[in-house]
């Protein structure tokens, strides 16, 4: 018997019992009370409904709905963004910059070349424990350009434990050459063997406060860093969907390549610097040496009072590199510092023995050779006045 039929039969049984309970019995032989006409009519209606339900074919019985099988949440389908201009393979580099290989000193938990004062950080270590991360250690940088793009190749010492260049990688541009960054190309690394705009941003400092009151060097006026978003797929900021790109070099998984349209950089000559950052990784806090005090930042030098690395950690950045022009060498934080030319000191004349036939009375050379003084009156022993 189906479940529905069982329910209907139970209903009929309850109805009969209910009607039976409504009849009173008299033990003294009096007539039993008879059910009212309304009760009998109601019983007949219920009985008719029951008979119809029992006679209904099983195929017509309502079927219980099976619970929907649990299914994993479906991610929304990615919207395909059409592209007109995609970077190619960079040609021969127009500029190269080597960097310090901190893997050589990582075993001692120190780094060379780190300068909090100039904002040139060399600290690919975790906070306090000083664990080395090679995906945060820049080794070599190249800049190439074509008709549309500046293409930067950032070589790291190596990928992370998962085989990925997983930090944030960036190129900062100073177009007006005042020591303040103006535009930042910023990308979260990952498994991107082909050119993609995923996880790529371009930001601008709209109110010119990157660097605080005094560019490069620390001060208390930290500002709000890069505050204007020019390009981002994730945020739907795609006025030009071809503006900025990233990929891992197909020929070398130690190299991440970043490309930016030339139209986003105001001029063909500028300062630029490279970044690898798994620590702070916040463009709103540029410059970091304005947002963090030296005691908060810590140090990668064991001779510093602020050793070990603190809140500014897992980070490597370069000095400012001049492109398309010749730097003066006096720029704070620049890669080209003029070394003062040493002033040569006058060498004392080498004593020459006096000839044996030298006449000090008639020869000035013989007089001075003997240690005397040549005067208008001839060779004299007295010192010159």
Q: What's the gyration radius in Å? A: 44 Å
Oligomer: single chain
The main β sheet shows up as:
8 strands, antiparallel
Unreliable parts: 19-32
Give me the count of strands: 15
How far the N terminus sits from the C terminus, by CA atoms, comes to 142 Å
Number of domains: 3
**N-to-C SSE string, H for helix and E for strand:** HHEEEEEEEEEEEHHEEHEE
**Continuous helix count:** 5
Binned, the helix content reads 10-25%
User: How would the global form be characterised?
Assistant: elongated
Mean pLDDT: 84
Structural class: alpha+beta
The percentage of residues in β strands lies in 15-25%
Description:
By secondary structure, the chain is α+β, with helices and mostly antiparallel strands. The protein has three domains: 3-24 and 35-56; 95-323; 352-385, no CATH class. Helix content is 14%, strand content 20%. The chain has five helices and 15 strands. It has helices at residues 3-21, 37-55, 288-291, 294-297, 364-369; strands at 95-98, 122-123, 138-145, 149-156, 168-174, 183-188, 200-204, 228-232, 244-248, 255-261, 270-277, 315-317, 321-323, 373-375, 378-380. The strands form three sheets. Strands 2, 5, 6, 7, 8, 11, 12 and 13 form an eight-stranded antiparallel sheet that branches. A five-stranded antiparallel sheet has the order 1-3-4-10-9, with no helix packed on it. Helix 1 (3-21) packs antiparallel against helix 2. The longest helix has 19 residues, at 3-21. The protein is elongated and about 115 Å long. The N and C termini lie far apart (142 Å). Residues 19-32 have low confidence and may be disordered.
